[in-house]
Structure formats: structure tokens, C-alpha cells
Design goal:
This protein has 433 residues and is mostly helical. The protein has helices at 2-18, 27-35, 43-67, 82-107, 109-112, 123-160, 172-215, 225-268, 277-333, 353-357, 382-394, 408-429; strands at 400-401, 404-405. Strands 1-2 form a two-stranded antiparallel ribbon.
Amino acid sequence: MRDQGEAFLSRRNKFARSVSHAQDELHCFRTWLQWMCVDQSNAWMMCLSWFVFLVMTIIIPCISHFVLVCSECDEKHSQPYDGVVQISLSAIAALSFVCLSRFVRKYGLRRFLFFDKLCDESETVRKCYTEQLYRSLKILFVFVVPCFAAETAYKIWWYASGASRIPFLGNAVVSDAVACIMELCSWLYRTVVFFLVCVLFRLICYLQILRLQDFAQVFQVESDVESVLQEHLRIRRHLRIISHRYRVFILWALLFITVSLFTSLLMTTRSSAQVNIYVAGELALCSVSLLAGLMILLRSATRITHKAQSVTSLAAKWHVCATIDSFDTAESETPVTQVPATRAVPVTFEASSSDGEDVGDEEDELDNTKIVPAYAYNTISFQKRQALVTYFENNRAGITVYGFMLDRGSLHTIFGIELSLVLWLLGKTIASV
């Protein structure tokens, strides 16, 4: 009777953690989404969210580019690259907003961030993931605030240094102030929406890293092969879910940013192009912002893929240590004739302190040089261990985009393709000057 009561309380606690309520871990995050007008929890908020999106992403950029033009400005205040900047930011913001809206509307914020699954994780994973959620907002501001400060300084200089625009409010000063605020709000909104989706992807990948590090503990304690296999299959399923949800965003973001950067390169390398901080400063700032978001996506994907594939190395080391220990045990029980060895190779089971000082933070539960203790495998047969290692070798987990694994090799391939296109484009433009 006592065991049934404890089981009921355990299920009740797990259900309480799975249900979303007003004061849960996502309370501050939901409040921030509401202030950014990207919350779509009900019909009213959805209409408001889409209205703000249309105004900030389409209407204001179009007014800025086509209506509030400065046809009589000097060379420093001319904006030959404004079209590329507006289209690039609006396109990536539209992609981000549509994907984020679909995520929240279809899965809900709690389910989308896998908070409903934390009841099955250890206390360490739950605590670290919740802390990373609050830290994600700080990371978002770290990327957005410097770019926004630079954009604000540029716009204030542009309007205050004599650039004339249409006085649509009757007074030129008031009109310039309103236009400047509108453009800055539009730029901030589009940038924040893009970085928000990137930071959320980084947060979800961080949860899987925590789970993999917690999963690595099974090789340090006495475990059976079936439980290890079930836990790894659960992690692979979550990685497949993340890949399925984000594959459209990652692919189109890569295409949009690539087209934007190559268009910028084509326009700035023409023989008649004017390139200086006054004319091309905003274009450079836009390119840096897009690249920073893309790097967040690719680094998070490759990192979780690397950690997931490190499980194979850990399982192989676990199998080797178990095999060596079993042979040592058999030799100690069976007397054999001692044969003098021509060379002695000392085997050290403890890493020296001098070696550990040069490793830094690269070692963790997945990537380390520690010997697996004997009690972690003394009840598992050789055939089961070999079968488990073979399974890990032939079932590599990670983030995929339509079947293509995003690992370090994929990054090298993407970099090679991009570099080839850059060199081809430079050969067509600079070589013709």
C-alpha cells in the first residue's frame, strides 16, 4: 500500500511539471514574448502579432525605401544599398516569424521547448536547463544590443547631419524624428525575431547535450544493455523531432543569407560602386547580424551532433576496458608460463595532473580519457557489449536537414562551396575592372 502511494505521488508530481500554468518556468519568457508582440496564445494576440509583423516587416520598410527617399542628398547620405538591406532583413524576419508562429501554435511553447519532458530527466538536467532558459535572454541581448546601438548611431547621424526627407508632418524636425524612430523600431523588431528563433534552437540543442552527458553516466555504473539501448533510442527520437521542426528554417535561412551576402558582394565590387562607412555601413551591419544568427544555428547543430557521435567512442572505450579486465581476470586464475618480454609498455589508469592542465574545458562525461571502472561492466557478456558498440557505430545520431547530417564535415563542405562562389564572383567583378 505504501509503494502504491509513493508511485501515485510520483506520477502526480510529474503531471504537475508537465502542465503549463501562470507561474511556471516560462512565465518571464511568455511576458517577454507578449511585449515583443510575437505571442499567439489566443485569437486577439494572434491578430495583434500579425498586425505588428506586417507593419514592422513590410509597411515601414516599403515606406522608408519608396516614400521617404532622399533624392537630393550628397554622396555621404546616399543609400545605394538600402534595397538590399531592407529585403534581406524583411525576408529573414518573415521566415523567422512564420516558423515561430507555427511552432507556438502547433506545439505550444512548453512542448516546443521540451519542458513537458523534463519530468523524466534527472534533477541536474532540469536545473541546468532552466538556468539556460534564463541565460538565453541574456545571450539574445548580447547579440542584439551592440548591433542596435550601431544602427541607432548611424540613423541619428544620418538624420541629424542634414539629410532632407519629405516633411509629412509639416515640420521637418518632427518628421525626421518620427521617421528615425519608425525605422529603428522596424530594424529592432526584425533583428530580434530572427535572433529569437536562433537562440531557441540553441536552447533546445543545449537540453540534448545535457541529456547526453547524463546518459554517459550509464557507462560509469552497473547497467544492462537493454536500458542503455532504450535511453539512446529516446535521445535519437528527440534529435529527429528537433531536426524535423527546424529543417525548413535552417535550409531557407542558409539560402536567404547566402543570396543576401552574394548580392552585397556583387554590388560593392562593381567598378562604379562607392564603398565607405557612410554609404555601406548599414549594409555591413546587416551582413554581420545575419552571419551571427547563422553561426548560432550551425554551431549549435554541429555541437550536438559531435556530442551525440561521441557516444560511440565512449561505448567502444567501455567495451575495451571490459574486455581487457576479463582477460586479466582469466589470466590470474589460470597459471601460465612467464615469457620475458622484449619491451615493456606501462599502462597507466590515472591521467597525470600535468596532462589535465592542458585540456581545458574540452573534456566532459562524453569526451574524456578516463578508464571505465570495472563494476560498470562486470555483469555484461562480451557479445552484448559488442552488439551495443556495433549499434552505435551504425546508428549515428545528430541534427539533420532532409537527411544531411550537420556535423563538422558538413560545415567544411558549406565553407568550400561558399568560398568557391566568392572567388568566382570576385573573378567576374574585380577581374573586369
